[in-house]
Amino acid sequence: MSIQNRRKSRAGHALENHLEAIFTDHKVKFSKGARTEGNSKPDFLFPGKEAYADNSFIESKLVMLGVKTTCKDRWRQILAEASRIPRKHLLTLESAISTDQTTEMIRQNVQLVVPASLHHTYSKVQQKWLWSFTDFLDFVCNK
Questions:
Q1: Are 69 and 12 in contact (CB under 8 A)?
Q2: Known catalytic residue at 52
Q3: Is 137 helix (H, G, I), strand (E, B) or coil?
Q4: The domain spanning residue 43 has which CATH number?
Q5: How many structural domains are present in the chain?
Q6: Model-level pTM greater than 0.90?
């Protein structure tokens, strides 16, 4: 079990590192793993930890991205991170998350970000709500 957990952890860190490289290549301002209130540590903060810590910075310009290779019930962990940001974004590589789960995400103000190549595994209703990574990248580039 510990070997499997180490593999999952490495996969998660690798995904974060790939995203970091993409954000850097696109000259997006961000902080990775910055500490926020309550010692929370969101995966990515946009435009960065300094803006987040500055109470005079306009909250609507702050963005948070949690990253999980698979969600299961762990997606709720991001709800307690970056409390200044009411709408959380969650990137996952998990296909076909149940409608019940995505309905709960919507209720909790979580925007799911899934690679476009996996959108077909979701229902038509879910697909209308899903964001692709390109959608998210456009969003943070235009903030």
A1: yes
A2: yes
A3: helix
A4: 3.40.91.80
A5: 1
A6: yes
What's the confidence (pLDDT) of residue 8?
65
Give me the residue label for tokens 């991001």.
78
Number of residues that this document lists for the chain: 143
Residue 9: its pLDDT value, please?
A: 65
Two tokens at 137? 């990248």
Q: Is the peptide bond between 47 and the residue preceding it cis, with omega within 30 degrees of 0?
A: yes
Could you give the CA distance from residue 131 to residue 65 in angstroms, rounded to a whole number?
Answer: 13
Q: How far apart are CA 90 and CA 114, in angstroms?
A: 8
Residue the block writes with tokens 């076909």 = 96
Q: What is the mean pLDDT of each run of 10 residues along the chain (143 residues)?
A: 69 87 97 92 97 96 96 91 96 96 97 98 97 98 88
Which domain covers residue 89, as residue numbers?
Answer: 2-141
* Set 23, 30, 44, 52: catalytic member: 52
Within its chain, how far is the Cα of 1 from the centroid? 26
Question: What are residue 112's phi and psi, to 5 degrees?
Answer: -80, 135
State residue 23's pLDDT score.
97
Separation between Cα atoms, residue 9 and residue 143, nearest integer Å: 31
Give residue 6's pLDDT: 66
